[in-house]
Design a protein that fits this description.
Layout lengths: L1 H5 L23 H9 L16 H19 L4 H6 L3 E4 L5 H6 L9 H10 L6 E6 L4 H21 L8 E4 L5 H9 L3 E7 L10 E7 L11 E6 L6 H18 L9
Helix pairs in contact: 7-9
Length: about 260
């Protein structure tokens, strides 16, 4: 980093290592502050200049806020979706602005789309995988390939039948219920971009449900969240999803009813 600065490069204040810096002028215990910062992405030990943020802290905050906004408004790279052979559908939402303003329309498909899925996709699979853009295109771009490969290897090893993988554009979580009902899936697994915070724009969640249904409450879902390289790495998360799928299949329940 210092070599780049000496060569005339401007330091990238959005990089993760910036958060590891202790900016308190005279901490009572420097080692304690360092240990705390390693345990969380919260903004600890940032110091202050009078009653204001230090300049470096403020710039880091603004950079992270910009990343979060970009994550919401950036579409996923659909060339990856095409290469992986996903069946593509779209909710009633027509564009990103409507997606943000009308979450209700992001939970619903048109009658024509539902009929097309019923016609074109595999019925009654053990596992139905759904990928949704959600509130972070960055998250799917960064994590999908690795987690999907691990999941598919695990399901093949356990001899689970896997339905036609489906990508849903402008999707909220509840689309997994509609797809499960249409295709009769035993376990439905949705990979979706999380609402970005100020720690990363690449965090993804996996929602899982046994015989998911729009007639069931939100508590039907089992969730693995914070999936990204500085959280739960996608390879590790994929192994967790395979294990949880086995538990859901055995217990025939999910969400709060499931006692793990």
């Amino acid at each position: 980093m210092r070599e780049k600065e000496e060569a005339g490069f401007v330091r990238d204040i959005s990089q993760p290592e910036i958060k590891d810096k202790v900016l308190i002028a005279k901490p009572q215990s420097l080692e304690m502050v360092k240990r705390l910062k390693k345990s969380t992405n919260a903004r600890l030990g940032v110091g202050r200049a009078g009653d204001r943020y230090r300049t470096e802290t403020l710039l880091k905050f603004r950079a992270d806020h910009a990343i979060a906004q970009d994550a919401v408004w950036t579409d996923i790279d659909e060339t990856l979706i095409d290469e992986m052979g996903f069946y593509k559908v779209q909710t009633l939402v027509q564009d990103k602005e409507e997606y943000v303003r009308r979450p209700d329309r992001g939970r619903i498909f048109s009658t024509e789309t539902m009929e097309a899925m019923k016609r074109d996709c595999i019925h009654d699979p053990d596992v139905q995988i759904v990928v949704a853009d959600g509130l972070s295109g960055f998250a799917i771009n960064a994590n999908l390939k690795d987690i999907y490969a691990i999941m598919m290897d695990g399901f093949a090893e356990k001899s689970y039948s896997v339905g036609t993988p489906i990508f849903v554009r402008y999707s909220r979580v509840a689309t997994m219920d509609k797809i499960s009902e249409a295709l009769g899936a035993t376990v439905t697994i949705q990979l979706i971009g999380e609402r970005p915070g100020l720690a990363t724009g690449e965090s993804m969640s996996v929602y899982m449900a046994y015989k998911a249904s729009s007639q069931k409450p939100e508590s039907q879902r089992t969730v693995v969240s914070n999936i990204y390289q500085q959280g739960i790495p996608p390879l590790e998360a994929g192994a967790q999803v395979v294990h949880l799928t086995e538990v859901l299949m055995r217990e025939k329940k999910s969400g709060v009813e499931l006692k793990i």
